Amino acid sequence: IKRVTVPQLKGCKGQRKIAALTAHSSVFASLMDEYLDFILIGDSTAMVAYGLPNTLSITVEQIAAHTAAVVRATAHACVVADMPFGSYQKTPEQAFENAAYLLSAGGADAVKLEGGEIMAPTIEFLVKRGIPVLAHVGLMPQHVNTMGGYKAQGMDEATGKQVLADAVAVERAGAFAVVLEGVKEELASAISAKLGIPTIGIGASVACDGQILVTEDMLGLNGENVPRFVKRYANLASEVQHAVQRYADEVRAGAFPESKHCFGVKSTTPSKA
Ligand code: KIV
Ligand code: NA
Question: Which residues are catalytic (predicted)?
Answer without folding.
Answer: 181
